[in-house]
Amino acid sequence: NNTTSFTVRNVTGTGMDNLVHVKAQGGCEVSHAVGASGVADVVEVATLITEVQLRDLVLGGSTNTVNDVQRSVTVTTDVALYSPSQSIEHGAHADDISGPGELTASGSGTHTLGGPTNIGGDTNITGQMIATSDVRSGGFLNLGNRTQTEVELVSDVLTPTTSYHTIGSENGPSTADDLVTITATNIGDLLVLSPSAGDTITVKTTGNVVLASGLERVLDDVKDQVFLRCDGTNWEEISSSLPAVTSFGVWVEHDLGGGGGPYTLTPTATLISVTGYSLDEDLQTITAGQDGDFIMIKRNAADARFQYIAGGNLDMISTPPVNHDDDGQIVSFVYDAARALWVQAFKAS
Hints:
- The chain has 349 residues and is an all-beta fold.
- Helix content is 0%, strand content 47%.
- It contains no helices and 38 strands.
- It has a 7-stranded parallel β-sheet, with no helix packed on it.
- A hairpin with a 4-residue loop joins strand 27 and strand 28.
- The radius of gyration is 34 Å and the shape is elongated.
């Protein structure tokens, strides 16, 4: 056909190799073409002026090709491209997958688009789809096939099947569980996770989950989310909707000696539990630290009774002496290197 558009319709393949080959100056519509279970089902269209229309097309061979040699392909009704094992290839020109029909690509073979692809309608891909050039979407990018499915932890391991999951505790509904490992998928895969309603999921850093802060995160609300990217082995955090859990470690005991003082305290940890023997135990100085260092001091509930006194490097909120003789009392300090002082930050009773 040299001038006008035309239609190839009601083609049914029955043999081992089924072929629709069209070369036209105008546009072309290929419709109601059904391939058999042969080796090669080919729709090859070379149009020079307008686009190719595909309607109600089913390719069922083991090697399927849709080759739009010159112009773009537009899907106007449902088109099934079925590739049980081999690939389906589109040519290098732009494909306009805009409906009102759907393009459904299924099977274990790959579906390769060689040119820019405009997707304005639904495109269902059950296998792997590889675009060797730009892929442009006129709608939303949906990570979870329009739903967020739950995956239950198994021995602290999550095995995702899509990019958008809720995490279910393996201990039953409304229970707590740890997420230690996420089964690795492909480099660049994205994953958005939140807890199932009622569950409390602690994302650990002892497996292959790499969180930005290096500290674990607790997901205990359905609005809590963590966004991850796979590097082929580990899942690295991109962002999160909640802060990390901050731990200062364990309380480390420091003995003031019992002789009255004044004493100098040399911290070996952030959390300090002080032992003293009477109100005459005087804490006057804390060994200098780095600018911004933070410590918290409590008394040993069994016997510690001491006080902060003047004359050292302590900048207290209240005028010394300040007693520290309550079991629930915690005093915190931040080191100010410019003034060489430990500045009291707060007192909790």
